[in-house]
């Protein structure tokens, strides 16, 4: 069994990114579990794990991870956008709209602005 050290965690994080890109979110989650277990404060690893949970349609774990990221980084536009997508997929439109709008206010990317639907009533 490999020793858990900083180099191992970096390798696991990068491998998890590759697995997620290759559409293996479960494999990514597995690798990230050990990274986060040893470094629970690692926001980048938590954000990547949240994305993997979302890709695996594990919406509640994704929601919890995105919310944890936002507790630490309330100005993270991507985390707001991803949490909004998670709420949207769960049928929670009101919560989704709120986070889409926060994402667009923090970073006016065209994708965020379209999703925010500012022209519609909340």
Automatic annotation (TrEMBL):
Q: Which organism is it from?
A: Streptomyces salyersiae
Q: Which PROSITE patterns match?
A: TPR
A Pfam family assignment: TPR_19
SMART domains cross-referenced by the UniProt entry = TPR
Protein name stated in the entry: Tetratricopeptide repeat protein
Which keywords does this chain's UniProt record carry? TPR repeat
Start and end residues of the TPR repeats are 77-110
Domain of life per record: Bacteria
